[in-house]
């Protein structure tokens, strides 16, 4: 089960970094707020791996005498995040029998795997709303 939690943490890290540059401190606070027990050293290892894979980009800037490190999602990271969210939704559906939600409109991706979803007929209304934007 540790592998599932580790994957969920990585998805959260990328999701948090979608909107803006984030610091390690902010990531730790957000993960702990979501009840994940993450040590700074574990977060650093995860971040190094995620950056190495090109999902996040690391920015180092000097702030006074201190180096400030922030992370931002790359376009490939946005795509990977959407794919991981879809896979987690599918897993949830298979395990718990819940309906797959459509991808959120702010992701900006076509939901080409809609056939996987068993959401009700109102899914077309949701797509129409996205198309109108």
Which helices and strands appear, and what pairs or packs with what?
Elements: H1 2-16, E1 22-23, H2 24-33, H3 40-52, E2 56-63, E3 66-73, H4 75-96, H5 123-132
Antiparallel strand pairs: 1-3, 2-3
Described by the principal axes of the CA atoms, the overall outline is: globular
Bin the helical content.
40-55%
CATH superfamily heading of one domain: Winged helix-like DNA-binding domain superfamily/Winged helix DNA-binding domain
Number of alpha- plus pi-helical segments? 5
Strand line-up of the largest beta sheet: 1-3-2
Low-confidence residue ranges: 112-131
Mean pLDDT comes to 78
What oligomeric arrangement do these chains adopt? single chain
Query: CATH architecture of one domain, please?
Result: Orthogonal Bundle
Number of strands: 3
Percentage beta strand: 5-15%
Largest sheet: 3 strands, antiparallel
Quickly describe the structure.
By secondary structure, the protein is an alpha+beta fold. It is 53% helix and 14% strand.
Describe what you observe in this structure.
This is PadR family transcriptional regulator. The chain is an alpha+beta fold and about 130 residues long. The chain has a domain of about 70 residues: Orthogonal Bundle (Arc Repressor Mutant, subunit A). The protein has five helices and three strands. A three-stranded antiparallel beta sheet has the order 1-3-2. Strand 2 and strand 3 form a beta hairpin. The longest helix is centred in the middle third of the chain and has 22 residues. It is globular and about 55 Å long. It starts with a helix and ends with a helix. About 10% of the residues are buried.
